[in-house]
Each structure stands twice: as C-alpha cells, then as structure tokens.
Amino acid sequence: MDTALERLKIRLNDAAYLSSAAALVGWEQQTYMPEGGAETRAGHLSTLARIEHEMFTSDETGRLLEDASKELNGAGYDNADASLIRITKRDYDLRTKIPASLVAEINHHNAIGHNVWAKARANNDYKSFAPVLKKTMELMVQVAEALGYTDHIYDALLDQYEPGMKAADVAAMFAGLKNDIVPLVAAIKERQDRVDDSVLHRAYDIHKQSAFTEMVAKEYGFDFNRGRQDKAVHPFCQSLSPDDVRITTRFDPNFVNTALFGTMHETGHALYEQGAGGGKLHLRMSTGTSLGVHESQSRLWENIVGRSRGFWKKYFPKLQETFPESLGDVDMETFYRAINKSYPSFIRVEADEVTYNLHIMVRFEMETALLTGQLTVDQAPEAWNAKYQEYLGITPDTDKIGILQDVHWSSGLVGYFPTYSIGNLLSAQLWEKATTDHPNIKTDVENAKFDTLLTWLRENVHQHGRNYLPKELIQRATGKPLSSDAYVRYLKTKYGEIYGF
Ligand code: ZN
Question: Which residues have CB under 8 Å from 180's CB, separation 6+?
Fold first, then answer.
C-alpha cells in the first residue's frame, strides 16, 4: 500500500503538470498565436485552470496533506518532504479560504475593469475609472477578510505574492529608502546636464540586436538546451519546469536599451528557474519562492551586473563592432554614463534604478490608504499627484501619466507592487554578500566570467526552490533581514561618481 505521502506527491504532480500545460498555452498565446485563435486559447486556459483548481483544492488533497504530515512527524524543517507539505498546506489554505462565489465575482470584475481602464487611460478620463477602483478595493477587503490577518489588512493581500512579508516590513523598507533616495533624486535632478544619453537612440539593426542579446544571455549562463528566446509585445519569462524555461524580448530599432537590458532582466528570471530546486525537489517546489526574490535575480543581472562599468570593459568593444555606424564615434565612458542616466519621470516602467522605488512607494501608500478608508477614490488623483511632487519633485499634468498608468488596480492586483522594490533592495543585498564571500566576482565580471556569481546564487538562492519563505531565504543567504542599506550604499557610490558628488 502506498503511503499518503506517495499518493500526495502523485496528485501534486498531476496538478503541477496541468499548471505547466497552462503556462505553455499562455506562452504560445503571447508569441505565435494567430489573432483568430484568441477565443480557443482562452478556452484552453480557463479549462486547464478549472481542472487544476478542482484537483488541488479538493477534500482529497486536504486529507492527504493531513495524513502525510502525520507520517512525517518529526522530520526536520529542512527536510524536502516536510517543506513540500508545509508550503503546499499554505497554498491549500490560501486557495480554499476564498469562497468560489467571491473568486467568480473578482474574475468578472477584472474582465470588465480591464476594458474600462484601457478606455479611461486612452481618454484621460479618471471619472469613468473611479467606480472600478472603488469596487476593486471593496473586493480586496473581502479577500483580506476571507484570508485573515492579525496586524494590518494589507498583510493578507501582500502574503499572496510575498509569503510571510508584512505591511510593517514594507513600511520600514520604504522609510529607509525615503530618507536617502529622495535627496539623492533631487541632487541628480540639479545635475541633469552631466549625462547625455542620445547615443542610445541612434539606429540599431534589430537582427544584430537579437544576435548580441542572445550571446549575452548564453554567457550569463542561460542554457538554451533547456530554454529558448522568442519575441513578444510585453516581455516575460515563463517556466514550464526547470528543464524548459522560455524568455521573450522585444526590439526597438531606435533604442538599444529595450532589447539589451530587457533580455538581461528576463535572463535573470530564467537563471533562477533553470536552477530552481537543483534537480532534487518535487516539480511543485522547483520554482522561485516569491515574486520579490524573483525580481532580485532579474535586477541583479540587468542592473548590478549589466549596467556596471566592469561588464562593459569586455562587451562595449563587441557592441561597437556590432554597430560601427552608431557607436564607432562613442567611447565607453559616454556609453556607460548614458545607460545609467537618471531623472525623475512619471512612468514607472521607464524609471531608472535610482527613482524606481519611489514610484512603488507611492503605490504602496495609496493602496494602504484606500484599503483602510483613509483616502477616498475621489481624492485619489490629487493624493497621487501630491506624492509625486513630494518624492520625485514633479507633478503629472494628466491622469493618463499619473494614476491611470498601471494596469494592476483594474485587475485586482493589490498588494503586488511592493514585490518590485523588495527585488531591487534584495539584489544589492545579495550582491554585497556574494562579493564579500568571493571578492574575485568583480574582476570575473570584467573578464566576462559569470560562473562564480551564478554558482553562489545557485547555492544560496536557486537550489532551495520554494523550500523557504522569502524572509527565511534572505536571512540564510545574507545573514541579515531585508533592509535598504546595501541598496542605498550601492546607489550612492555609483551615482555619486557618475554625477560628481
Ligand atoms: Zn521582472
């Protein structure tokens, strides 16, 4: 007779394969699907999601989890089976606590909300979006009540994306950033003329861009035998399993950054997925542990490595060779400064590494105020603009480039934004620890050697898959809780030098 643990593993495998098949369909939808296939593909996705949901949330899964956990009684916290049960129990609770009727209402609201938002943004008409935002917040309060929380209502929502992280952790993280970054942004703004990034906007043949970015992904360590790269309108990384990880990118013939840094970013996500679980964990656990930790990997390879002077020592001559007409008359220093130009802007997705987290801070403060009723939906645009003025020193003149810019609030994504900043901060904290353990990593990067860094990340982050919650993983990997210290040090050193203070 099979043990409950064995039966549980088989059941979870089936559910994981259904999710993986849905991921494949989702990838295809965004890469190769002919326009006419939209309805069929939506059917594939919703049917697969429904079957997976029924299987995963069934009473049978609940029973097997109980029985298997009894069988494992006494297994250590680090034991892979104990971790599988602990994390799966967490997922099971999360997914069974929200009533099916509420899930259906949210899905319905999101489908309508998205269209209303798209129209409102196009027409710069916040008034027509306000009822959607109001409803989103009401539904999110219901979700939080169903999931339960002890300290702050926001905790329940954040926990879905960053397990175990609390609103208080995020508030502390931003308090540290606010003190140091707001004055840094203001100081850089005063010295705008010190950096000119016009060379990035010359002509760059997209076929050559494609070959160059593929080379960088390969040299970073992306295994093309267990992954591939394709084009997509909105770049993303989709993992079907550690042995099949797909990244996508997009090309702009008149802006070299889009594909270059976009590919580095997605490669960072992909390296995490290809190493997730180290080939030793159940498929369910062989993926990243949270969105924030995931973003730390993409930001590390995109910004800390990819926008460093060291990296371009070897790669700038190669880039120049690839694009002699556009870069032949440019020296490395000009290029390095151009790719690190910082300036306060309105649009989050275009923000540089100095200003980016301030955009997230605005959204976090807005979300908590809207959820707790400190702020009404009608007051929201004014509050948004005031925060941009206070933190970034600029006021958007339309809601289109203000409160209406992000898709998240039309799609029920509340509690999601902080994961971006957690990722940015953590990227610097991991880099600091890795380069303390192996000081040669910096000279390795100058020599286009990335395996010391990748091996450190594999050992300290990737191989653990989902075994540890973000807070546990961060403490184990860096010996400290998450803080803004390393990130602030990194920014002050780098940008102090670029802008001369
Ligand atoms: Zn990312």
Answer: 484, 488, 491, 492
